Amino acid sequence: MDKAIKDGFIDIVNRQTALYKALEGVIKEEQDALSAGDIKKVDGIVKKEEAAISEIKELEREKYPLFSSMALACGFSKDSGVKLGEVLLKIGGDEAREIEKTVVGLLNAARDVESVNESNSRLLKNYAGYVGFVKAFKEKFGKKPVQESYTAKGGKKKGKTGDKPGIDRTI
User: Fold this and answer.
1) Residue 155: helix, strand or coil by DSSP?
2) pLDDT digit string (tens) for 71-114?
3) Residues contacting 66, CB < 8 A, separation 6+
4) What are the chain's domains?
């Protein structure tokens, strides 16, 4: 196999791994902000996450032609839907082990990000539940209490708290 193709593929996988590790740090920062209830900070962190994910996707687009070239060099047709494992079996030896080790590192970094992200999802759901509870509580109990008072003839009249009390001033 062409060394330049293999090295290019490994380089992109290593860069993706580094981005995933950086993304994990950003997501942990998001977790801290969520735990602290600092939503303004979360907004800025989400923008960092989006930028990292965009870079990862761009590297994926760069990696695909290199993978296709490796598959073609191993005798697979362009549209065969071949998997990396099948290509590595054809390559064999130290080259295959080097590629496999690099890809496993990428997969582990992606799993670490997924794990932290799941925790953040739970925090977000809890936060949303809390916000919903507070909103419902305020709607039900947050209105000013109504003070009931009576007219001189005994009929009810309503007034808001803070109105002058409806007590007779003369006895």
Assistant:
1) coil
2) 998 989 877 888 999 999 989 899 999 999 999 999 999 988 88
3) 5, 8, 9, 12
4) 3-143 (1.20.58)
